[in-house]
């Protein structure tokens, strides 16, 4: 089956200059193609430039060189077509759950009734019915992250960018959220670019995994993940899963021993 | 059960705070009584509580108290409102535009260090002793500080919230209105409350230099007649009105930003 290209990252470099004038080559010649409805995952150690790459795709940061194309159009600015879920939750603390979810719709000029219909749908999907009128400060971390996801989904972006959205959650909540995300992405048919440093999470969620290494941040390997049947936590014990996990671990391990030896 | 217990502890704590406040006031009044009724201090220096109460009652009866309180309050409100209305947009612009900040900040920093009292002679020269001069003094005393407080509050808003709004499609104007302003509100309310207190101080200064009404004027006139009891009455009233405005501001803040989490709540 041939799918259209949703996102193309072409030769992206990012060099930060710190206040001492020192240059950090955060991203080096990043190229990647994400097809429509694909769930692409970037996995890599802390500090390898994952957030930087996602922010560039989202339009929040400028690449030093290279281009980002969404639906074959170059993008420079953030836009409602690319929804982002951040490493922190970034909920608006003065708005209720419902108002947070409706934020993007309000901006697009939807009527109150139109907003209500969509927000109800997504609050339902993330399982937060009954908390519509709650303020973020009264919610747990997992609930806040669900609001953040619903807020982004309610905008119905064609590309969903997620930066370690479950990083701060405990193991059980994380499992629940991962399964939720798998079912949502299948239901809404959204293209996803997902960032994590957790290999299990990458294998569980991704159709395609990009492995990144550090200093300078570059993509060292692309892995296609194909499991039979629906993906759930049962795949974690399959032999082919173990094999892929070992492969990725070896790559990341190689990277960190290289770094330790100063290569 | 647990919630109820915590609630009870909270109430007990609140009660004990209130009673502590009352006790500290009580001790002061007791010391005052001892010093005056005990004949330790001359009543020209420190009048007895009863004579202060009498002086206040007299001013209430001849109608001067209400009119003086009103003219002072009115001046504070006008002067402070002018400074708040201007400081809000200018402070927000300073926080958001480097160019604007570069143009305006040096001026503000400079004027900020001029003591307002030192400007009183000039304002009298330019504006006379009318109401305009009072508003100007209050404005000069609060505006330059308030602008910087607003700019500071706005520029410390969590950048991630602004980024979230951008990725949800918000235009620059929508980011001002829907994110920057509400996110700054708790800090803004605090700045407003604090500068309101300063406005009172500067007003009394202005009224003591040149005025024919207001609480500052009452104090100054009483000094000429050595009416220490009236001076004390004026001082206590200024303190009480200040306390009262503060309470009102805190109450409004609770209503306007119920979402705000504060240390010690
Ligand atoms: N604004 C900046 N100025 C200078 N250096 C930066 C800046 N932002 C990021 N960096 C550097 O770029 C590199 C990549 O940072 P980035 O936040 O993208 O890492 P990450 O892969 O998301 O890490 P983590 O998994 O810990 O979130 C780091 O070395 C970091 O120090
Ligand atoms: Mg990161």
Q: Short description, anyone?
A:
The complex is a heterodimer of chains A (263) and B (265). Chain A has helices at residues 50-58, 97-101, 103-107, 112-125, 141-154, 171-188, 199-205, 239-260; strands at residues 5-17, 23-35, 39-43, 65-70, 73-74, 82-85, 159-163, 191-196, 208-213, 218-224.
Describe this structure in words.
The complex is a heterodimer of chains A (263) and B (265). Chain A is an alpha/beta fold. Chain A folds into 2 domains: 1-81 and 159-223, P-loop containing nucleotide triphosphate hydrolases (Rossmann fold), CATH 3.40.50.300; 89-156, no CATH class. Chain A has helices at residues 50-58, 97-101, 103-107, 112-125, 141-154, 171-188, 199-205, 239-260, and strands at residues 5-17, 23-35, 39-43, 65-70, 73-74, 82-85, 159-163, 191-196, 208-213, 218-224. A 6-stranded mixed beta sheet of chain A has the order 6-7-8-3-9-10, sandwiched between helices. The longest helix of chain A is centred in the C-terminal third of the chain and has 22 residues, at 239-260. Chain A is globular, with a radius of gyration of 19 Å. Chain A starts with a strand and ends with a helix. The model of chain A has no long low-confidence stretch (mean pLDDT 85). With 265 residues, chain B is mainly α. Chain B folds into 2 domains: 1-41; 48-256, MetI-like fold, CATH 1.10.3720. Helices cover 83% and strands 0% of the residues of chain B. Chain B contains 10 helices and no strands. In chain B, helix 2 (49-61) crosses helix 10, helix 6 (131-155) packs antiparallel against helix 8 (172-209) and helix 8 packs antiparallel against helix 10 (228-256). Chain B is flat and about 75 Å long. The mean pLDDT of chain B is 88. The A-B interface holds A 58-60, 78-80, 82-84, 86, 88, 90, 92-94, 103-104, 106-108, 135-137, 151-152, 155 and B 158, 160-161, 163-171, 174, 178-179, 182-183, 185, 257-261. The structure holds adenosine-5'-triphosphate and magnesium ion.
């Amino acid at each position: 089956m041939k799918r259209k290209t949703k996102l193309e990252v072409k030769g992206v470099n990012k060099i930060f200059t710190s206040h001492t004038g020192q240059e950090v080559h955060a991203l080096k010649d990043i190229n990647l193609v994400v097809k429509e409805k694909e769930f692409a995952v970037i996995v890599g150690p802390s500090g390898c430039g994952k957030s930087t790459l996602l922010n560039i795709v989202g339009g929040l940061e400028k690449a030093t060189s290279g281009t980002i194309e969404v639906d074959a159009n170059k993008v420079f600015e953030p836009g409602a077509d690319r929804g982002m879920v951040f490493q922190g939750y970034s909920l608006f603390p003065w708005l209720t759950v419902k108002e947070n979810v409706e934020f993007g719709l309000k901006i697009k000029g939807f009527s109150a009734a139109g907003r209500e219909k969509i927000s109800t749908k997504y609050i339902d999907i993330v399982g937060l019915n009954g908390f519509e009128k709650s303020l973020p400060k009264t919610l747990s971390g997992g609930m806040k992250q669900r609001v953040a996801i619903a807020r982004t989904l309610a905008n119905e972006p064609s590309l969903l960018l997620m930066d370690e959205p479950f990083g701060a959650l405990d193991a059980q909540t994380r499992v629940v959220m991962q399964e939720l995300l798998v079912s949502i992405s299948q239901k809404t048919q959204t293209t996803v670019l997902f960032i994590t440093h957790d290999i299990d999470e990458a294998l569980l969620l991704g159709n395609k995994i990009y492995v990144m290494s550090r200093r300078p941040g570059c993509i060292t390997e692309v892995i296609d993940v194909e499991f039979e049947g629906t993906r759930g936590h049962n795949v974690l014990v399959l032999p082919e899963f173990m094999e892929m996990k070992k492969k990725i671990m070896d790559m990341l391990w190689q990277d960190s021993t290289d770094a330790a030896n100063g290569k | 059960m647990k919630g109820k217990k915590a609630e009870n502890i909270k109430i007990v704590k609140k009660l004990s705070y209130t009673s502590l406040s009352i006790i500290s006031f009580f001790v002061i009044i007791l010391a005052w009584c001892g010093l005056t009724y005990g004949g330790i201090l001359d009543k020209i220096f420190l009048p007895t509580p009863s004579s202060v109460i009498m002086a206040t009652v007299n001013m209430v009866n001849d109608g001067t108290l209400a009119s003086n309180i009103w003219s002072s309050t009115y001046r504070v409100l006008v002067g402070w409102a002018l400074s708040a209305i201007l400081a809000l947009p200018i402070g927000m612009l300073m926080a958001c535009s480097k160019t604007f900040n570069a143009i305006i900040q040096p001026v503000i920093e400079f004027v900020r260090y001029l003591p307002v009292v030192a400007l009183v002679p000039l304002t009298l020269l330019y504006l006379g002793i009318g109401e305009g001069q009072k508003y100007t003094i209050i404005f000069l005393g609060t505006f330059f500080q308030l602008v910087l407080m607003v700019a500071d509050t706005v520029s410390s808003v969590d950048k991630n919230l602004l980024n979230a709004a951008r990725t949800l499609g918000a235009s620059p104007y929508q980011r001002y209105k829907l994110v920057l302003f509400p996110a700054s509100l708790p800090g803004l309310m605090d700045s407003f409350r604090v500068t309101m207190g300063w406005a009172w101080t500067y007003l009394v200064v202005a009224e003591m230099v040149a005025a024919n009404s207001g609480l500052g004027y009452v104090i100054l006139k009483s000094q000429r007649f050595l009416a220490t009891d009236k001076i004390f009455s004026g001082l206590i009233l200024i303190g009480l009105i200040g306390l009262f405005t503060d309470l009102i501001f805190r109450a409004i803040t609770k209503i306007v930003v119920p979402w705000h989490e504060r240390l010690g709540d």
